[in-house]
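quick one if you have a minute, typing this from the bus. below you get a single protein, a line of residues and a line of whole numbers that encode the local backbone shape. could you go over both lines and see whether the tokens make sense for that sequence. anything you notice is useful, everything is just below.
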Amino acid sequence: MKSNLQLNRQPLDSDWLWQQLQRYSPFNRIVVALSGGVDSTVLLHLLQQQHARQNFPLSVIHINHQLQSESDGWAAQCTKLCSEWKIPVLVEKVVVEKSGHGLESDARAARYRLFEQQLQPGDILLQAHHADDQAETVIMRLMRGSGVRGLASIPAQRALGQGRVVRPLLACSRQQIIDYAQNHNLSWIEDPSNRDLTIERNLIRHEIMPRLEVQRSGVKRALVRSAEQFLESAELLDQLAEMDLDSILLEPRQLDCEQLIKLERGRRRNLLRYWITLNGFLAPSSTVIDRIIDEGLYSRADAHPLISWFGAEVRRYRNQLYLMQRVPTHVGHTPVKWQCQDELQLGEGLGTLKIV
């Protein structure tokens, strides 16, 4: 489903939002990811107005990352707001595990794992990302040397578990959202970390973007348009990868090395990224993709290469590449008593053992 994003140049209202959501109809529930900040508070208020007229299934989920001393207070404020607006809310605490990819990335991974668990078939999870977020993300990805898929930045919608993530406010500016909040006398949470200029996004938002706007008026809109064009290019690359997979895919998580090696290197890289994300794993960096090619395809025949990254790994066995969930490293030995008539659970990612 393509986004075909059209920037909204009119003041925000609930009818406009409801019209945007009809593109994803029919849906089961609408679930709003509420942080308590101005963006998600405005999104929920817009929906609450429609809910009074349409009476569709509406609920809220708030994730407490437990990263700041104010986290419990924010959860309480979100609960209070939902009680006032008569909207059911689920508050969940998550433990953010450090992966070496940065705190923002780790918190996001923990958040989306929980979102995926909560979504039922046909649900849409609404998030309040807006056009300014999109423009900032394009700059961040450029600074990191991202390819076409990365520069497509924040998608307007994508599959997640049994449901979909939808971001209807991507067509709106931050100023439109703030104007709406002030006009409706809304209150919201101000996260003090949003002013921390050691965080890359905040530096772009508060220092770099204002200077770019002075130099070239309308730069945010131009960056959002670029993201849309990158998205179109990424979709074409996905179509190419899908065609290439026809002769290389043996099983959903299994590739034929002999056929893969026949592709030109750029097409190999494109196919591997597509295959990995198609199976629900985080897209690896270019360095990891190169390791999969160099070690997975070209290491000696008796080698057993293993290439791992956040939450996933690729192994080679009998001239085939296998994609799987990353197997945790186990330290030490723990004796286990096993009654052979029962299945033995081997631990996270290791499956079960039984006698047949």
